[in-house]
């Protein structure tokens, strides 16, 4: 490698010497080249190939160091009259540039400091855009955020048509905006509607879609095995092709401008009309407000930046972009979202080490919603899976669910029908224990009843090999109670999946004091393979997630009894930032499950889990209002109309259990905080009791498993940003009206007393 | 053993025999002289194993689809080939025990095209016939099926062949339309029929063309060939040169009457056809003008360096040696060891020959140097070049094939020297018999002993067979 670099340097020198005639100067340049660690380049046939490679990370990010070297290299290239065009390429197989370095912004104290950083980036990209020689970006792997903004500043873009190649502007998901020219260039490049869609959703765009949108000019096919001895083979074709195009552009043989079709011309004309644009801004604004409830500032700022750029020109646009980015970086929402991003990364690692044996064959007991869901995400990742049920009807339903889950992916074109069939072939649906003798892990997802679970543990342990792990999927039953029937409790662990399993990202793993470390490592490894974000918590009734949700639902039932209608309750909770309203959530979880959990946890924790009357839920179950699955719950389902109708039968039940609302704690905001404070207090208590190992996993579990408002970053970050003292004050106020359900736990009181105590630094 | 009696070469050869143990080709005053030296094995005959021979092989002229054969049906072509074989061999029709035919794109009316063609050609109705399909190696499969039947002692004389007719392919109604039409058959009342008819929408009338893409990957073969060529660093120039070579050699072979397997065929309503019509030697300049056909704009596979859509049929007569001799035939060659291979249909779709060649050589106990005549199916020039490069690569052999060393690439002077699929044409299921017959003819003409046939096929499959010349 060193020799190769020397060679490059030398040829660079000769090229320089030839032009400038100053041998000495080229010497000083060569030493600078040697010192560079992130960016290198070579000149061949008048094309400068610039390679980006952050030696400290698996992906390339635009940090201070990278940026400085890039500026240096680009200036050298411009100073070299032998260079007629340039190619920008990453040396990493799966990453072009994955975005800007977030730490760089987080280290900033003020909005101005952030804005200043961005202006440097904007300037660099503007220079590239106006470069006297054409730049060709050869994209393979992730090209996101600042990486995409870099690429679209280049004159030409080539992308490999591989599953790894994704383009996008995910800034909005971090509460930020594309701040290095993205809001200015994208609308011009892909049109206003598509640009808004990209920037406001942050969605990833695959290579072929990017080509259709006009985001890249050319695609290159990934190649199979050939003669090259390199793992980076897949993006090898990108380089020669990019070099060819660079030469073509320099020689004016390749034209960047494509002939516009009639539709494009019409669209351009329409977009040229100020009233039309105004209407678009307004529509988009309204849509954002409706979806974000005004809780997320970034989307609105994105609209503002785009609008400023188009209506008032580039200079104003860039200024608006950098200033707004600076402001957003200082918001609690952005901090919360970035916290979640880092938390998610942390929860996608196995902190328990490499398991002794890899799980190559998995068995799932029970082909219900959960069991089939678990089977689906397992075979999807290439692990052979047995799906066992006790009845043929149950099994058929489960197999159909798996098939449908995969088939829906083929409709969205993320799978081919062939891939679907291959994946399905890994599933073995059966009614007996055939093959269990070779299973490495069994996950049971049978009915939530301790005696049935005990029976299953005994049956399964009689047929599985000694190394096989037994995982139980339960939402509330303490694992140690289930383990009581086991002959090998060290191999028993809880794996709490969330429904629908193929959509919900969270997996809560529960260990007992007898669970071995290797068993935990293995369960985490399986969960990670299934694509889950994982929290590992201690054992107890309701573990962490169910335990936090139960008091909030109890409070929701009380509010309903007090005469707050399901629709009002939903709008209050979604208005606070929950993606799904409390009444709808109860219907989704299942009223029967909610009743079951409320009763179990009520017994375990006593009056703290009181509030609403459990009988309300039981009565609803009795009448068949089990939630969405039975067609009726708080709402009526089934009709195709979008407007959900409140179930009048449920309303009658609520009337018969009517409570009078104490006026002092029944304003809209009070109801919101009654719900949230009980959730948060229970979460803090879980940390206090050691059920939760740390606040990060608490936040991730609440947001990814229960839909705690992402803009608040999770219960712990919420306490930090809202102020523990303020929250305690509110709870004391509620305590006066309702009693010990609102008694703040000790840890929360400690934080309230000492404002320097924070869950997150 | 010398192929020439000119004594001036004797000394030369004597020295050579002592230093090198392989075939050498010398060019003296425009005369090619082949000198054979000791082979790894004198013959591939095995004690206790029946010798199976190729008595003869014929084919109809291979024509570009949509030309003179345009109004025929597949079994017409197959029948022409069968009748041609009967004429050529003088075979009594009832001496045939079994008939196997290959085909790829099936005409639904004649799904067992072997039977329809055999009956039409006047074979005894007591001779059973079945049809096999294995993409471009369908007639290889037909021939090896015949070999199997004879080796197992079930038959003594089998006719094998293949037919492909691309001038007409089954174009279907859409699935929705088919469903409606099938329900219409079952509808009992007028009302039910009318309501079914009423459910037909304009979109249902859109026809469904036969897929040209690989089913498992949805990738067309040309696209895969282009990627394969790129993966092995095969340039456009190399591909065009190889295609030009194929056409030039085919033209030369045609002009000098070497393509003796071609029979004349009086096409109903048209003239007698007696020549392949796709052989068109062009110039490098003209070929360079073409735009890539699959990966645009930077691909390297073009119409000129790919095989073209072709109509044609072929047939061979395969017998046990005793039976052939008993009937007074002088067989052309022994059909020896053969293999089928399969690999990744996405990235190694067309690498069949690379995988099959070392395997069949190993099975025979031969080395590449023992082979005097190579006939490889040329699907695309890029595919052939990629295979040659893969066979020449130790790294590829070790990394992907689990072999210690490369098998080596065939020397070009022994390779497809009478043209190939690129120039003669490629009626999918008829090509295999052409390859085997050509090897037999080339061995006779050039005086070699061993020949090798290899081909790739859709589905990521491949085939190779070793053929031994019948002692003259």
TrEMBL record, chain A:
EC number: 1.1.1.211, 4.2.1.17
Record field: transmembrane: none
Pfam families membership: 3HCDH (PF00725), 3HCDH_N (PF02737), ECH_1 (PF00378)
GO molecular function: enoyl-CoA hydratase activity; long-chain (3S)-3-hydroxyacyl-CoA dehydrogenase (NAD+) activity; NAD+ binding; transferase activity
Pathway entry: Lipid metabolism; fatty acid beta-oxidation
Active site annotation, chain numbering: 508
Positions marked as site (Important for hydroxyacyl-coenzyme A dehydrogenase activity): 496
Location of the 3-hydroxyacyl-CoA dehydrogenase NAD binding domain: 361-539
Similarity annotation: Belongs to the enoyl-CoA hydratase/isomerase family. In the central section; belongs to the 3-hydroxyacyl-CoA dehydrogenase family.
Assembly notes: Heterotetramer of 2 alpha/HADHA and 2 beta/HADHB subunits; forms the mitochondrial trifunctional enzyme. Also purified as higher order heterooligomers including a 4 alpha/HADHA and 4 beta/HADHB heterooligomer which physiological significance remains unclear. The mitochondrial trifunctional enzyme interacts with MTLN.
Protein name: Trifunctional enzyme subunit alpha, mitochondrial
Organism, scientific name: Cyprinus carpio (Common carp)
Phylogenetic classification of the source organism: Eukaryota, Metazoa, Chordata, Craniata, Vertebrata
From TrEMBL, chain B:
Family matches, as InterPro entries: Thiolase, Thiolase-like, Thiolase_acyl_enz_int_AS, Thiolase_AS, Thiolase_C, Thiolase_CS, Thiolase_N
Gene3D superfamilies named among the record's database cross-references: 3.40.47.10
Residue span(s) of domain Thiolase C-terminal: 329-468
Annotated metabolic or biological route of this protein: Lipid metabolism; fatty acid beta-oxidation
Pfam families on file: Thiolase_C, Thiolase_N
Molecular function, one GO term: acetyl-CoA C-myristoyltransferase activity
UniProt keyword annotation of Acyltransferase present: yes
Keyword Endoplasmic reticulum listed: yes
Span of the signal peptide: none
Catalyses which reaction(s): octanoyl-CoA + acetyl-CoA = 3-oxodecanoyl-CoA + CoA; dodecanoyl-CoA + acetyl-CoA = 3-oxotetradecanoyl-CoA + CoA; decanoyl-CoA + acetyl-CoA = 3-oxododecanoyl-CoA + CoA; butanoyl-CoA + acetyl-CoA = 3-oxohexanoyl-CoA + CoA
Top-level EC class: transferase
Protein name as annotated: Trifunctional enzyme subunit beta, mitochondrial
Organism: Cyprinus carpio (Common carp)
């Amino acid at each position: 490698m060193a020799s190769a670099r020397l060679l490059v340097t030398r040829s660079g020198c000769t090229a320089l010497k030839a032009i400038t005639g100053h041998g000495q100067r080229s010497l000083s340049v060569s030493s600078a080249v040697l010192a560079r660690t992130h960016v290198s380049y070579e000149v061949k046939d008048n094309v400068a190939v610039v390679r980006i490679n952050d030696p400290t990370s698996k992906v390339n990010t635009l940090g201070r160091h990278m940026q400085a070297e890039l500026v240096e290299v680009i200036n050298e290239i411009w100073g070299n009259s032998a260079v007629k065009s340039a190619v920008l390429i990453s040396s990493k197989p799966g990453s072009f540039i994955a975005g800007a370095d977030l730490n760089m912004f987080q280290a900033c104290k003020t909005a101005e400091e952030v804005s200043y950083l961005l202006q440097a980036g904007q300037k660099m990209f503007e220079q590239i855009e106006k470069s006297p020689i054409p730049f060709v970006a050869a994209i393979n792997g992730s090209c996101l955020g600042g990486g995409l903004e870099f690429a679209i500043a280049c004159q030409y873009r080539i992308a490999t048509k591989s599953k790894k190649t994704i383009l996008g502007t995910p800034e909005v998901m971090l509460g930020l905006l594309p701040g290095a020219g993205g809001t200015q260039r994208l609308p011009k490049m892909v049109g206003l509607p598509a640009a808004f869609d990209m920037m406001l959703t942050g969605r990833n765009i695959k290579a072929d879609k990017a080509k259709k949108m006009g985001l890249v000019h050319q695609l290159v096919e990934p190649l199979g095995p050939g003669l090259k001895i390199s793992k980076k083979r897949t993006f090898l074709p990108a380089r020669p092709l990019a070099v060819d195009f660079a030469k073509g552009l320099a020689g004016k043989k390749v034209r960047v401008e494509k002939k516009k079709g009639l539709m494009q011309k019409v669209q351009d004309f329409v977009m040229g009309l100020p009233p039309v644009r105004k209407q678009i801004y307004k529509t988009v604004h309204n849509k954002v407000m409706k979806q974000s409830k005004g809780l997320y500032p970034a989307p609105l700022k994105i609209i503002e930046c785009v609008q400023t750029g188009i209506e008032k020109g580039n200079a104003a646009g860039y200024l608006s972009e950098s200033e707004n980015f600076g402001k957003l970086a200082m918001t609690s929402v952005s901090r919360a979202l970035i916290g979640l991003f880092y938390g998610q990364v942390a929860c996608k690692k196995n902190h328990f080490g490499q398991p002794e044996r890899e799980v190559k064959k998995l068995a799932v007991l029970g082909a219900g919603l959960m069991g089939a869901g678990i089977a689906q995400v397992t075979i999807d990742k290439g692990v052979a899976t047995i799906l066992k049920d006790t009845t043929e009807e149950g099994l058929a339903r489960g197999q159909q669910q798996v098939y449908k889950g995969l088939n829906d992916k083929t409709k969205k074109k993320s799978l081919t029908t062939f891939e679907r069939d291959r994946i399905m072939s890994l599933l073995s649906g059966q009614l007996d224990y055939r093959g269990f003798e070779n299973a490495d892990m069994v996950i049971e997802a049978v009915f939530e009843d301790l005696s049935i679970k005990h029976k299953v543990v005994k049956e399964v342990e009689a047929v599985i090999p000694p190394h096989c792990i037994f995982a139980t999927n339960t939402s509330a039953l303490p694992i140690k109670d289930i383990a009581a029937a086991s002959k090998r409790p060290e191999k028993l662990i809880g794996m709490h999946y969330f429904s629908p399993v193929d959509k919900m990202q969270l997996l809560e793993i529960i260990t007992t004091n007898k669970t071995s470390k290797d068993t935990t490592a293995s369960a985490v490894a399986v969960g990670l393979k299934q694509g889950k974000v994982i929290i590992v918590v201690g054992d107890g009734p309701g573990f962490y997630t169910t335990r936090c949700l139960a008091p909030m639902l109890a409070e929701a039932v009380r509010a309903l009894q007090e005469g707050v209608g399901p629709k009002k309750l939903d709008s209050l909770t979604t208005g606070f930032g929950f993606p799904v309203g409390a009444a709808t959530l109860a219907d989704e979880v299942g009223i029967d499950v909610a009743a079951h959990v409320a009763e179990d946890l009520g017994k375990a924790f006593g009056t703290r889990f009181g509030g609403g009357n459990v009988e309300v839920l039981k009565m609803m179950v009795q009448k068949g209002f089990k939630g969405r699955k039975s067609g009726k719950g708080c709402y009526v389902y089934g009709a195709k109309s979008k407007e959900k109708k409140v179930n009048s039968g449920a309303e009658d039940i609520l009337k018969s259990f009517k409570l009078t609302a104490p006026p002092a704690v029944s304003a809209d905001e009070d109801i919101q905080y009654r719900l949230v404070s009980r959730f948060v207090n229970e979460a803090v208590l879980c940390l206090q009791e050691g059920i939760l190992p740390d606040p990060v996993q608490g936040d991730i579990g609440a947001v990814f498993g229960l839909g705690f408002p992402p803009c608040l970053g999770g219960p712990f970050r919420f306490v930090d940003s809202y102020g523990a003292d303020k929250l305690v004050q509110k709870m004391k106020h509620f305590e006066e009206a309702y009693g010990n359900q609102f008694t703040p736990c000790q840890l929360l009181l400690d934080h309230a007393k000492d404002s320097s105590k924070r869950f997150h630094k | 053993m010398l192929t020439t009696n000119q004594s001036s070469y004797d000394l030369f050869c004597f020295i050579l025999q002592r230093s090198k143990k392989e075939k050498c080709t010398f060019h003296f005053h425009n005369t090619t002289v082949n000198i054979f030296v000791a082979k790894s094995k004198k013959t591939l005959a095995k004690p206790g194993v029946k010798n199976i021979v190729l008595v003869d092989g014929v084919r109809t002229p291979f024509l570009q689809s949509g030309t003179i054969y345009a109004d025929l049906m597949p079994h017409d072509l197959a029948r022409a080939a069968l009748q041609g074989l009967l004429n050529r061999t003088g075979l009594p029709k009832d001496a045939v025990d079994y008939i196997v035919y290959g085909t790829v794109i099936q005409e639904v009316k004649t799904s067992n095209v072997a039977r329809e063609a055999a009956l039409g050609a006047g074979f005894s109705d007591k001779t059973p016939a079945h049809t096999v399909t294995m993409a471009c190696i369908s007639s290889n499969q037909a021939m090896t099926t015949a070999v199997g039947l004879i080796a197992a002692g079930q038959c003594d004389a089998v006719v094998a062949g293949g037919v492909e007719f691309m001038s007409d392919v089954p174009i279907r109604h859409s699935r929705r339309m088919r469903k409606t039409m099938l329900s219409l058959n079952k509808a009992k009342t007028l009302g039910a029929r009318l309501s079914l008819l009423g459910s037909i929408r304009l979109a249902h009338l859109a026809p469904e063309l036969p897929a040209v893409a690989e089913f498992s990957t949805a990738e067309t073969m040309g696209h895969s060939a282009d990627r394969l060529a790129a993966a092995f660093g095969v340039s456009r120039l190399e591909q065009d040169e190889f295609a030009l070579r194929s056409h030039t050699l085919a033209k030369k072979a045609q002009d000098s009457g070497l393509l003796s397997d071609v029979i004349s065929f009086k096409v109903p309503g048209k003239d007698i056809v007696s020549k392949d019509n796709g052989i068109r030697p062009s110039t490098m300049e003209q070929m360079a003008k073409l735009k890539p056909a699959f990966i645009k704009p930077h691909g390297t596979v073009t119409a000129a360096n790919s095989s073209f859509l072709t109509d044609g049929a072929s047939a061979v007569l395969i017998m046990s040696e005793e039976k052939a001799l008993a009937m007074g035939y002088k067989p052309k060659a022994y059909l020896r060891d053969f293999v089928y291979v399969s690999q990744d249909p996405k990235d190694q779709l067309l690498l069949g020959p690379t995988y099959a060649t070392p395997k069949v050589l190993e099975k025979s106990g031969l080395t590449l140097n023992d082979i005097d005549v190579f006939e490889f199916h040329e699907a695309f020039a890029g595919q052939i070049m990629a295979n040659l490069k893969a066979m020449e690569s130790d790294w590829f052999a070790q990394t992907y094939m689990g072999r210690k060393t490369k098998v080596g690439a065939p020397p070009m002077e022994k390779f497809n020297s009478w043209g190939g699929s690129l120039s003669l044409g490629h009626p999918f299921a008829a090509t295999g018999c052409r390859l085997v017959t050509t090897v037999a003819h080339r061995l006779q003409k050039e005086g070699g002993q061993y020949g090798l046939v290899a081909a790739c096929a859709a589905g990521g499959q491949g085939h190779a067979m070793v053929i031994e010349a019948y002692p003259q």
